[in-house]
Amino acid sequence: MFSTVLLFREALYGALVIALACSVIGVYVVLRRIVFVGAALAQISSAGIALALWLAGAGLALGGAANPTVVSLLLTLVAVLFFASGTRGRVPPDATIGITYSVAAAVGILLIAKAASGEAHDIFLTGNILGITRRDTLVLLGVTVPVLAIHALFYKELLFVSFDRETAGTLGYNVRRWDLLLYLTLGVVIASAMQFAGVMLVFNFLVLPAVSGLLLSHTMRGVFFWSVVSALVAAFVGFSLSVPFDLPSGPAISAVSGALVMVSWGVRRIAAYG
Amino acid sequence: MAPLATFDRATLGYGRRAVLTDISFEIPEGDFLGLVGPNGAGKTTILRALLGSLEPIGGSVTRAPTLRFGYVPQRDQVDYSFPLKVLDVVLMGRYDRIGLGRRPTVDDRRRAHQALEHVGIDRLADRPLADLSGGQKQRTLIARALVGEPNVLVLDEPTNGMDLVATTQILGLVRELHDRDGLTVLMVSHALNEVSNYVERIALVVEGGFRIGTTAEIMTEHALSQMYGIPVEVNSVEGHRIVVARRRTDEAAGSRV
Prior knowledge:
heterodimer; A: mainly alpha; globular; B: six-stranded mixed sheet; 10 helices; 28% strand
């Protein structure tokens, strides 16, 4: 069984890198209660991939303009600027997120339906983990390493503006700029992971590992640690089960991630009564 | 000595909509000022203008170059789902001094412990913030404000949602910080009865109206009745002022509680 998994080891490495990047940023996504911003960004990112495929099919590709990751990244960054600006007049913030999610999902499906490449619609939902190559993994690492370096370097600033933006503002922090940095790293990670992991798995990695972390630890350091560990375990176990049993990798990893949240919840309950 | 902050005929509001007009007052060093008024009257607008997050529409708000605020937000502004220990929260008060991208030093931690000791909860330094009582959380936020070595302590509704004991303890602590350490204090509150017994000056904000003076000047039946637009009584019980709206029957009988 393990030898079969090894045949797809490049894909496994890619899944582990995606798990690492998403599970770190996911801690902020969950704590700042912007889970559905993550979902909307993931959906917009997938619409970007659809747009790239449609452009390529229609013969409108100009150089890198139809590269799915490039188009997805550009579209996601526009959405990041929109969400980070924070002011939407009389429309409630969650309604704005809902509109963005819904329109992005519809546009993505419509573009794919008319794309000449004939990609299946569900690839955007479930992703194509097995299709990850060594080059893809290196690109993913090229995105993940600087993003994690930014988060390590500016940990206390990102934490402060997330925890108590008002007080941070009185101490001279430009809260909007720090918000923008956080959203930019979120957007870059989502856009780079989307093509391989799909909306479902990216959203899963942004939320579930962080929830496991919060259930297992009372400190920020512990939450980050357990979030990363549970994402890596979910990626490894889910992937390893999906290959020999001929299951789609994304949903298999998501299912394991869900099981880990249940285990974490159980551990928390036992610890509370112990 | 130059005042720490000066409002000079300031018009304050959002966009073009003025909430308060022609506001003039100073905050001198060593002041103990209560900014008091009902919710929605404009206290937060004045506070934002003072902190610099709101530019005046007209007039000016000037802050001394040396001015450094120690801000204590309303307790519900802080998100207690963050897994932070009390000491972690207090250290945030030094983040801007520590500098961008750098970590707290041993000295920063020592100062954070000192600040916690100052407010009487150093024993709770390693406890999760979420596990504390309302009063202990408020003390943590005050310690965070103090650890940044401010020259003005600004507290926004510090006793909101607290019981009588916790309210008395927190207000007592704030007065102690003023009396013992000579700290300039601005306390924003809707609770006139609580604040008026602790501060030295009161800025009263009621429906666009603004009046500032010593506690003795503001806490008169005439001044308060004029500001609130209803007849009020100022009673004294064991040295504590208690303001009550005069009921019709009281008015008819001319009685007092």
